[in-house]
Amino acid sequence: MNKKKVAIVIFLTLALMTVEVYANASIKQMFTTQYDNQGTELDECATCMRSTSPPASWNPYGAALKDDADFDRNNIAQALENIEELDSDGDGFNNIDEIRNSTYPGDPDDFPEVVEVTQTPTPTSMETAEPTETIASATPDTEDSNGTLNSMFNALFTFAAIVLMSIMVRKKNV
Questions:
Q1: Which of the residue ranges 14-23, 104-113, 143-152 would you say has the lowest mean pLDDT?
Q2: Cβ atoms of residues 75 and 30 within 8 Å
Q3: HSE toward the beta carbon, residue 134, CA cutoff 13 A
Q4: Are the C-beta atoms of residues 93 and 111 closer than 8 Å to each other?
Q5: Span 110-115, mean pLDDT?
Q6: Nearest CA to 107 among 45, 61, 155?
Q7: What is the pLDDT of residues 124-167, one digit of tens each?
Q8: Please, which residues have CB within 8 angstroms of residue 121's CB and are 6 or more apart in sequence?
Q9: Which of 40, 79, 83, 132 could disulfide-link to 70, CB 3.0 to 4.6 Å?
Q10: For residue range 42-94, what is the model confidence (pLDDT) as tens digits?
Q11: CA distances, 34 to each of 21, 48, 52, 64 (Å)
Q12: Burial (CB count <10 Å: 0-12, 13-18, 19+), residue 5
């Protein structure tokens, strides 16, 4: 295959990859509008994506959003609502609680701070006591394999697209 054909195949592959990146930017915009978190930590691609460089891969929250039956790139409002009560990253907190606390719903290592308040027993008439607070932090131990599968799928898809385009170019010249 000559250099011109190789260049065309590479150009087409990169062009197809950038379409997904731009589509995901519109998803990010709809997310920040729905949850009114523009300018916050969640106003970035990492809310749904593990990586935005090719091959791009979804994190557990983004995968749940994309896999929802109501997912539509032009209007994701219903799909966002559908996955609010899920715990996509398995850290013990549902997605909406993480969003409200500006923590990533797709990152098991980023979760809301847990504060437990314990009140002492009611004092008798002979004694007086003030309520005390106990603050404890939870650090759940979780493992995620969705990201690895997404990365492998994206790499396989990209490879298949390149091979397919090469075959098409060869058949055209025969």
A1: 143-152
A2: yes
A3: 6
A4: yes
A5: 86
A6: 61
A7: 665 555 665 555 545 444 444 444 445 555 666 677 778 777 78
A8: 129
A9: 79
A10: 998 889 988 877 777 899 999 999 999 999 888 899 999 999 999 999 999 99
A11: 20, 15, 22, 17
A12: middle
Instruction: Check residue 5 and give its pLDDT.
Output: 79
Angle between the N-to-C axes of helices 146-173 and 60-67, in degrees from 0 to 180, rounded to the nearest 10: 60
What residues does each domain of the chain span?
A: 3-110
Categorise residue 142: left if φ over 0, alpha if ψ from -120 to 50, beta otherwise. beta
Helices 3-35 and 146-173 sit at what angle, rounded to 10 degrees?
Answer: 140
CB-CB neighbours of 65 under 10 Å: 26
Q: Locate tokens 């899920």: which residue?
A: 86
Q: What is the predicted pLDDT for the residue at 146?
A: 44
Tokens of 43: 């106003």
